[in-house]
């Protein structure tokens, strides 16, 4: 089995020399400029090797037999994720993506007519759909917290909106359609002060910046594997704080989440695995643990510092172009850089860049409908950088534009 001795590697700095190693671990860097890390990042070699190794074993000796052989390595995921988030392994569930992780948390609440959910204007589209579905089903009221002048959640307004009807505060830490980083810690402080459960969609933040659940004060947090963590597609994680675990009743239970005791009784397990399925993407689970260890080996502070440096450089370069308007909001801006062009629509820019082997994506508002409608936006080009990108790639990108 692979033993990646990564934890003592030198930390990544904002110095191009230090990035040789992650670029070597990312062979695609030789052929493409990948600025679609908020879509799906490039897996580093240790992660792809782990995936191949696991699948190859399944083909050679059998799926159940491989799971037995790799039992300790599969369990390692919970320890690595706990290290990443600064929580307990028993507070982690492995699921198939961030949306399902978030759903398992959200649909565990038993909302009553008149209860309120407070959320952000830049909330992720699937989450808004779930709120609206619950509003239809149970009469819960969905209330959007206004933005402040910087486009982030107005925490002063949030404080004033708290009353005894508020049963959940639920926001996206880094929304999908721009560089905005919401003030998650201040929101957590308000949630704790009033004893209101706090669900954080950390799909774009985990792997990009340090995200520690105690520092933030969230009770539930959802993660995807394939974006800034550089893990495989089809993997995700849910964090559930121990103190809230007992109160939540998962929307689905199977015989991994619960034990069938008699024809009329079952007992739900006590740890966060009650939010999991018995059948899982085991190769992905194994490789996601490797991806988390890989991120930890660079250090999340160093990763954030490098990503923020690259994104600032990109924004500055773009703002020198007459044709381009950078559209990122927020006081703190992350590695997601979004912009419009006066002369071309976002799809045609994406296609032209693809011809030059540069990957970007288009945010068409489906992921951030409420915010896009409020801002009068239809489509943005989204160029999202990671620590393995370089200043030279940014210059090349800007030249192409
Ligand atoms: C903020 C946010 N939340 C949730 C998701 C959904 O993640 P997944 O596709 O892993 O379910 C995304 C995906 O882009 C996202 O940006």
In short:
The protein has 15 helices and 15 strands. The protein is α/β, with parallel strands linked by helices and 401 residues long. Helices cover 39% and strands 16% of the residues.
Describe the structure.
With 401 residues, this protein is an alpha/beta fold. It has 15 helices and 15 strands. It has helices spanning 20-24, 45-61, 63-69, 71-85, 98-106, 125-138, 155-161, 184-194, 213-216, 242-245, 282-298, 300-319, 346-355, 369-375, 391-400, and strands spanning 33-34, 92-95, 116-120, 141-145, 166-172, 198-201, 220-224, 236-240, 258-262, 265-268, 324-326, 336-341, 358-359, 361-363, 380-384. It has a 7-stranded mixed β-sheet, with helices on both faces. The protein is globular, with a radius of gyration of 21 Å. It starts with 19 loop residues before the first helix and ends with a helix. Residues 1-17 have low confidence and may be disordered. The site of pyridoxal-5'-phosphate has 13 residues, from helix 5.
């Amino acid at each position: 089995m692979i033993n990646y001795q990564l934890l003592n590697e030198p930390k990544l700095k904002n110095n191009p020399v230090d990035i040789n190693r992650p670029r070597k671990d990312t062979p695609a860097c030789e052929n493409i400029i990948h600025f679609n890390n908020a879509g799906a990042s490039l897996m580093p070699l240790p992660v792809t090797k782990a995936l191949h190794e696991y699948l190859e074993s399944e083909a050679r000796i059998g799926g159940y037999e491989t799971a037995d052989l790799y039992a300790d390595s599969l369990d390692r995921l919970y320890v690595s994720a706990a290290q990443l988030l600064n929580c307990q392994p028993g507070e982690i569930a492995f699921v198939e993506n961030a949306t399902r992780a978030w759903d398992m948390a959200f649909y565990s609440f038993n909302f009553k007519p008149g209860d309120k959910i407070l959320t952000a204007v830049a909330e992720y589209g699937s989450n808004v759909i779930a709120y609206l579905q619950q509003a239809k089903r149970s009469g819960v009221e969905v209330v959007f917290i206004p933005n402040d002048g910087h486009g982030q959640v107005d925490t002063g307004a949030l404080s004033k909106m708290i009353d005894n009807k508020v049963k959940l505060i639920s926001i996206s830490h880094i929304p999908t359609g721009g560089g905005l980083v919401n003030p998650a810690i201040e929101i957590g402080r308000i949630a704790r002060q009033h004893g209101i459960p706090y669900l954080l969609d950390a799909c774009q933040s985990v792997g990009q910046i340090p995200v520690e659940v105690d520092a933030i004060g969230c009770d539930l947090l959802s993660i995807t594997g394939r974006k800034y963590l550089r893990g495989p597609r089809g993997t995700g994680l849910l964090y559930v704080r121990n103190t809230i675990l007992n109160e939540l009743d998962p929307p689905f239970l199977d015989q991994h989440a619960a034990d069938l005791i008699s024809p009329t009784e079952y007992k739900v397990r006590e740890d966060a695995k009650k939010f999991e399925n018995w059948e899982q993407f085991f190769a992905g689970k194994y490789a996601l643990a490797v991806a988390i260890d890989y991120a930890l080996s660079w250090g999340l502070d160093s990763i954030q510092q490098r990503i923020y440096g690259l994104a600032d450089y990109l924004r500055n370069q773009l703002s020198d172009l007459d044709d381009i308007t950078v559209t990122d909001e927020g006081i703190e801006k992350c590695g997601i850089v979004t912009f419009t062009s006066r002369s071309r629509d976002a799809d045609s820019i994406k296609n032209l860049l693809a011809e030059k082997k540069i990957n970007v994506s288009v945010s068409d508002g489906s992921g951030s409908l409420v915010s896009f409608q409020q801002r009068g936006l239809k489509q943005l080009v989204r160029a999202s950088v990671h620590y393995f990108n370089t200043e030279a790639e940014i210059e090349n990108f800007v030249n192409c534009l």
